[in-house]
Design goal:
The protein is of the alpha/beta class. The chain has two domains: about 120 residues, 3-Layer(aba) Sandwich (Rossmann fold); about 150 residues, Rossmann fold. Helices cover about 30% and strands about 20% of the residues.
Length: about 325
């Protein structure tokens, strides 16, 4: 059985709101049925150093401290090292970039930065891994929201929609960045994402926007799509997301594609429940099948990945 070490470069926490951290837990669970899998983060202190067939770094952006894991990497006799990311704009940390020889992404291969070299590549729907079925319907106490970090290439959409009664949920470190845009909306701390108790359950609707650069590079639906689906919350897409809508496999009625703050709030306040129920029912079934397909694709990839010893012997 192949031995795999997943190194999450964010802080591992079951209650994390960070997409790649949540995906790392799901990836471990999916692969554990077929492989001997360990999941660690960069704070893990290794008392014993094992040999691995595959080491996979998750996210690995700038500013990471690899001191603990470096001991493990240097002790490997024969190991494939890879990078997994669902973030289109991310550059791998130089530490990982210089060692990796395969990449797994949530987006098309032409979106990978040219500075990254690799031998093997897999594009797979990573974000569907978090989908765990639809919650029981909760009382919808609030109107429309957006939850997430500040992103430079979404400023045009922040300014279009973040007004008046709109609610923005983000970490406190991002408050000033949004305030500097002179946005006139309500701002609150990060939502709870614990399964069944998600804050999003309390909202009638939420907003789907993308980085402007993503419009021409297909990236599977973001985690917010699955979170809204799970919470029976209407998800409205800015019309600029049409390429993603057309290329992905989900059913998105034209009703859920919008072009202004006024249209978003009008539809939120007078929500077509029939369309929401239809949307939820159809897409939950698609998401369930997509999750199975993505899981199988990942298992097949790691089973088929030529190991370092085999590459050296020319067995393939």
């Amino acid at each position: 059985m192949r031995k795999i070490l997943i190194v999450e470069t964010g802080r591992l926490s079951k209650n994390s709101t960070i997409a790649h951290v949540r995906n790392s837990f799901m990836l471990r669970d999916i692969l554990s049925g077929s492989f001997d899998v360990e999941l660690v983060d960069l704070l893990t202190e290794f008392k014993d150093i094992n040999q691995y067939d595959i080491i996979l770094f998750s996210y690995a952006g700038m500013g990471c401290n690899f001191a603990n894991i470096d001991r493990v990497i240097n002790a490997q006799k024969s190991c494939r090292i890879g990078w997994i990311t669902n973030e289109f704009e991310l550059f791998a940390n130089d530490y990982v970039k210089q060692k990796m020889d395969f990449i797994i992404t949530n987006f098309e291969e032409h979106g990978i930065k040219k500075a990254h070299n690799y031998d093997d590549f897999l594009m797979v729907n990573l974000n569907t891994l978090i989908f765990d079925g639809v919650n029981e319907v909760s009382e919808k106490k609030y109107g429309c929201c957006y939850f997430g970090t500040y992103r430079k290439y979404r400023e045009v959409y922040f300014q279009r929609y973040f007004k008046e009664d709109f609610i923005l949920s983000t970490s406190k470190k991002n408050f000033k960045k949004f305030i500097d845009l002179d946005l006139d909306c309500k701002v609150t701390d990060k939502f709870n994402v614990i399964g069944g108790c998600e804050t999003l359950n309390l909202f009638k609707s939420t907003l789907y926007i993308e980085d402007t650069k993503t419009h021409q590079c297909f990236n599977y639906m973001a985690n917010r799509f699955y979170e809204a689906l799970q919470c029976n919350t209407a998800l409205f897409f800015d019309k600029s997301c049409i390429n993603t809508i057309n290329k992905d496999s989900y059913f998105i009625d034209d009703y859920f594609i919008i072009d202004s703050y006024h249209e978003l709030m009008q539809k939120t306040n007078d929500l077509d429940m029939g369309k929401l129920i239809e949307h939820t029912h159809i897409n939950a079934e698609i998401a369930k099948n997509e999750r199975i397909a993505a899981s199988n694709k990942l298992i097949d990839f790691f089973n088929g990945l030529e190991l370092e010893g085999e590459r050296q012997k020319g067995l393939f």
